[in-house]
Amino acid sequence: MGEVILTMKDIDKSFPGVHALDHVNFEVRKGEVHALMGENGAGKSTLMKVLTGIYTKDSGSIEYEGREIEFKGAREAQDAGVVIVHQELNMLGHLTVAQNIFIGREFKKGIKIDDKKMNEEAAKLFERLHIDIDPTATMSDLTVGKQQMCEIAKAISHDAKVIIFDEPSAALTEAEIEELFKIIRDLREQQLGIVYISHRMDEIKVITDRVTVMRDGGYVGTLITADCTKDDIINMMVGRVIYEDPKTQSMVAKDAPVVLKVEHLNAGRMVQDVSFELRKGEILGFSGLMGAGRTETARAIFGADPKQSGDIYINGEKVEINSPQDAVKNGIGYLSEDRKRFGIVVQKTVAENSTMATMENFMKGLFINKRKERAAAQDYVDQLATKTPSVEQLVVNLSGGNQQKVVIAKWLVRDCDILIFDEPTRGIDVGAKNEIYKLMNRLASEGKSIIMISSEMTEILRMSDRIVVMCEGKKTGEIDISEATQENIMNMATREIG
After folding, report:
1. Helix 144-157 vs helix 115-128: angle between axes, to the nearest 10 degrees?
2. How far is 441 from 408, CA to CA, in rounded Å?
């Protein structure tokens, strides 16, 4: 690692009712990958927004390249070489790759935009990053992984000296993550300072040199990655020990009734002849690689996508589910993997989101009984330990883990007996994960039945009573948790059925 390029000292920031940053320290050296970790709501994103001028700090100092600075906005930070690669991609799908990279800074030939020059410059950036992408390709035609690479090229085009990666691997496949890591290592060789924000503990050990941990808006400490264990980092993040032991036996009684039976379900290429049963009080894990058809199966059961054929039985009775409304009427709740698009309305309050699926229960004539709505929402804020100043807080202001809890509250208020949790802990930290796990176990012990789709093998092994494995739209195996190992699940996940 080289000399210090960036130092943030005693950074303090408050919002109404929230002390978001409490005298936080952070530094980045040239040629290092420095992880910034902490639970959702710990203040990581706020700290980076203060750095890049999106928020103004209340006190403290920022020193960059040997002088004290305070950027007036993201554009000024970019021009100085401090760039964020966001988790939510900011590309315009209808434009070409090169047009996206140089948007707002187009090369001109007289008064006309010089597309040829932009394509040439984009090609040079990709060459520097050892990436094979056509600058003239339309952005929407690229995979999420390739779009992420374009975001990185865009950052480099600002002559970046410090790049902040915010959850860069959240939507990537294993192969794409490997590509990303190659690029990051290359950038490190070129003496850039890299800030890496991620909840994935295994990645931190592989790609970073140092780890700084934040908790509740405060600075906890900085460790050298090679000298610390995963447990050391978790303890600093949450202030308590979290055990991630796999489940060794099913918690479901042998004679537990079947609450959901799916027979020969077909819905396009990604759902082909899928059959399974879900028992009362069971957590049924759905495992498989990206594109295996797990989410598509869930959406077909929930009526979000049309099914072509197949039968669904609830408590032994055949039901017709042609829309999400039909599913909800039959006691099925669906927690989408994309909570921002399908789970919550971020510009509404915690109370409004919590009662969204049961609005009829809160109506008084033509009006909503606000007091009753607030009381119901508060009940689940307390039960789920949701961090929010009040139930009147807009959901957009909550951290990812707490937004997830609001989605769960919505289906608990509805009192659904069958819950489909699609990637329930994606993008949330280890502490919030643990709370979601406890909640799922409690719901199962109370007789709720859960289908849990997860791409994390440790999560599947820790939570499931039984596991269904899919590959290329087909069910390729089913196994009791007592016999499940990473190896036999992975064998099924890569086994195509002719």
Report:
1. 100
2. 14
CA distance 116 to 192: 29
Q: Which of the following CATH numbers is that of domain 258-493: 1.20.140.10, 3.40.250.10, 3.50.50.60, 3.40.50.300? A: 3.40.50.300
77-91 in b/e form (b: 16+ CB < 10 A) is bbebbbbbbebeeeb
Coil, strand, or helix at residue 483? Answer: helix
CA-wise closest residue to 211 among 224, 200, 202, 195:
224
Q: Which two tokens stand for residue 175?
A: 């192969």
157 confidence band (pLDDT: 50, 70, 90): confident
Site of tokens 């797990």? 294
What are the boundaries of each domain within the chain?
4-238, 258-493
Dihedral class, residue 428 (left if φ above 0, else alpha if ψ from -120 to 50, else beta): beta
Closest CA to 337 of 170, 176, 173: 170
**Beta-bridge mates of residue 215:** 218
Write the pLDDT tens digit of every residue in 335-394. 886 666 666 888 899 999 999 878 888 888 888 889 999 999 999 898 888 889 999 999
Tell me if 82 sits within 8 A of 71, measured CB to CB. Answer: yes
Give the span between the Cα atoms of 196 and 180, in whole angstroms: 12
Q: Is 33 exposed, middle or buried (0-12, 13-18, 19+ CB in 10 A)?
A: buried
Length, in residues, of the chain: 498
Instruction: For residue 351, report the phi and psi dihedrals to the nearest 5 degrees.
Output: -60, -45
- What number of other Cβ atoms are within 10 A of residue 485's Cβ? 12
Q: What is the DSSP letter of 227?
A: G
pLDDT tens, position by position, 365-378: 888 889 999 999 99
Of the two residues 17 and 442, the one the predictor is more confident about is: 442
Q: Could you check whether 4-238 and 258-493 share the same CATH topology?
A: yes
In the CATH scheme, what is the code of domain 4-238? 3.40.50.300
Residue pair 412/390 in contact (Cβ under 8 Å)? The answer is: no
Distance in angstroms (rounded) separating the CA atoms of residues 405 and 440:
11
Nearest to 398 by CA among 18, 51, 11, 84: 18
**Whether this model's pTM surpasses 0.70:** no
Helix (H) or strand (E) holding 75, with range, is helix 74-80
Residue type, position 206, single letter? V
Which amino acid is present at 224? I
pLDDT digits (tens, 9 = 90+) for 33-58: 999 988 767 888 899 999 999 999 99
Residue 436: which of 455, 447, 421 has the closest Cα? 421
Hey, is 457 helix, strand or coil? helix
Task: Give start and end residues of each alpha helix (H) in 190-331.
Answer: 201-207, 230-238, 294-302, 324-329
Q: Given the structure tokens 């999106």, which residue do they identify?
A: 54
